[in-house]
Amino acid sequence: MKQTLHVDIQDYDIEISDDRIENLKDKIDFLTTGKKRLFVISRKVYKLYGKLLNLPEDEIFILPDGEKEKNIKNYLKIQEKAFESGLTRKDVMIAIGGGVVGDITGFAASTYMRGIDYIQIPTTLLSMVDSSVGGKTAIDIEGAKNIIGSFWQPKVVLININFLKTLDKKQFLSGIGEILKYSFIEKSCEYEKPIFLSEYLTLCCEKLFEFDSVTLMRVIDYCLKLKISVVNKDEKESGLRRVLNFGHTFGHALESITNFKKFTHGEAVVQGIFIALSLAYKTDLINYAYYRLSAELLESYGFKSINITKYDCDKLTEIMKHDKKAQSDKILFMLPCGKKSVKAVKFSSEEVKDFLVQTPHITPV
Ligand code: GLY
Prior knowledge:
This protein has about 375 residues and is α/β, with parallel strands linked by helices. The protein contains 13 helices and eleven strands.
């Protein structure tokens, strides 16, 4: 099975397939005919799939796994390897791995000799439904994620769901967190017709966890249709693209206060969605029925809202204040404002802190 989506800006394709991983090599060779290549591949993925991928050893840079590897040192090592291998402006980098590999390779490609092509081959559910598409590339600095980066679209994205067979449950759930996010923002993504993602997710939970290929490919296809619709209209995040940050204001703060160790990105985003739902309910943007229905969808996938008063709410608020998306001294949240729609709402730090310490427990009306 194979389906292809198209991104209008920079004109590139996204292929979603369940083809044999062994066949990827021919596909890449065909796409890169006559070019020098540098493959940046996650160490874990290389251990699991190196033999099947059968890539030439001298064209490979192996990146250790983990967010801490998305740093300036590894960025420089990739650039040096590209230079030593003789890559020129007409050549290509290829990222094979999760979001860390995709982000650092994309940034390296966007700056090598003032910008060369790159191909995204995402191997985690999270990177398949989010970071491999849309051209956000970045590396981290000490204590802050994605501070140095660029918008640089890939030449092509090759998604093969067979990589997910070896993904651990926690990482799979992280991807599910981002997928659930799309169901809350469907209308705001302004896709040409309804996709009914939340309805589909309500029905397909069991099949997703059973790794049913048709269901997985359909869910990835739905999420990417929504993301592409947004990115085509607002590549550089001057407005509409902010809808993709639903759940992320609090989610990022939670990841940061727990040193990126306790929660995966998707788990933190889901906690951000719980917070956004309560904040929207408390400010009368949504009614209790929508609040409850939404919480139930998250709960049906095994997510539970945590007690945030366990964490230092002053510090959480401080982190949100310094978020890249914050404006002046206000904290910007994307909040649900009706079925499948979200809007940007600004709060003062005091308002946010008060809300957090009161714990957003919601009792039926
Ligand atoms: N991950 C959000 C975006 O690509 O804008």
